[in-house]
User: What shape does this take?
Amino acid sequence: MPVPESVLSVLPDRVRGWLADLAQRSPQTTDTLEEIRLRVGQPVQLVGAGGEGFLRETGQLTSDPRSAPPVTAAEVGETVRRASRHSVYAYEEEIRQGFLTLPGGHRMGIAGRCVMVAGQLKTIDPVSGLSLRLHRQFTGLAEPLLPKILSPTPPYVHSTLIISPPGGGKTSLLRDLARLLSDGGPLPGGPSFPARKVVIVDERSELAGCWQGIPQLSVGCRTDVLDRCPKAEGIIMSLRGMSPDVIVTDEIGRPEDLLALQEAENAGVAVLASAHGASWEEVVERPALRPLREAPFFRRVVVLSRRRGPGTVEKVFHPARPAGTV
Amino acid sequence: MENLAIWFKAVGAVLVLAAGGAGGWIIGRGYQERPAELRAVRQALTGLRNEILYRSASLGQAWSEVARRTPPPVNRLFAVAAESLEKGEAGSASFAWERGVASLATVSSLTSSDLEILRALGQGLGNSGRDGQERVLTLADQELLAAEAAADAEREKNARLWPYLGVALGASLVLLLI
Assistant: This one.
């Protein structure tokens, strides 16, 4: 996939030209690009499937940062203004959270001087570094896993916790599960299952990649999204108002998250969630998640790795029987 | 032949008088329109403040909405700026705003000092948080209020004077030519 126009349109004019040259010289590099990083006084860094490098004026990549032109403070500022549609005031909350979402669900992380007022982060100004992460949807990633989390009784899906270290593919897997459950079955050569009403509580706009509240990634035709909503609040809100069969949310880790999960269980709603960690044991060692050990809310635990790329399923088991597999 | 010359002179005198009167009337009308246009600009900026602070509309959307609700000729400022920004003709919001100001200058009675207030406002629009936007809009409003008071005083002084002055100048010219 070439670099999307929604990303190119926010970049400084010079950088856009260099990327166009790079796309001509080496289309494979731009097609597999994952990140474009701009830092004041430093050259443009590109990160992709094939490695990383600094962008030269000639549209070539180099490992020597001194042979690539640096980005200016004005260019970084202009990039933020373009990404915020020349309306920084309308994106204050997003900037406070450290990122802006672009059309298409791509994300621009922001670094710089954090301005604190009364102990609270008010804004980031001036901005010194930007990380443009290109979103790529892995459609079909969850198809092999889905039969293992389906249940024969309502809500026809087991509450499932997906575990992996950062970058393991948890979010991509959750997104694809939401899409599959929302669209309904059967899968090609797989089991038949009823379509479910899904609510995604997307605190960091990563699952659905919403822009202006509209999902930019495929999350299914029966899916509603609570974008940038705190997880616990979002779960309770959706139980009250949206009558979901399944709630999908990313990276649980606070005590209030578990209380909200309990509410969902009481309401007969399945929850698909994720947590950082290399194993179930490691996850339930975290103080906020320790209650899961005694009262396992989840019926399935999925452990991922990057062994064969992000989203490699290593193990699926019932948390009461961590030694066994499903 | 002599009668014809007299007729020509009479028609010429009437035309010079009319031209003087019309010139004076046009200048006088400018003095009358400027305060009204300044008031319209201030009202439009109140609308812009609401769009920015309470609706969190993007600058392009906010300008379009204000253009829709503002009477001519002041609506042109917002309409041209919004169109320029949405089309991506301008690299930045301040360039788009500058185009709007330039377009307004061609159809309004605002003076260069009034337009300078608007240009200064354009430098601050869109590139700060809500607090910053409130500050730049408040500053512009205060400056426009002062300009409006000065424009009102000038209107009192000059709006009626100029049509008479135009006719008097025309009459003087007629006398000189005769």
Notes: Chain B touches chain A through 21 residues (CB under 8 Å). DSSP finds seven helices and no strands in chain B.
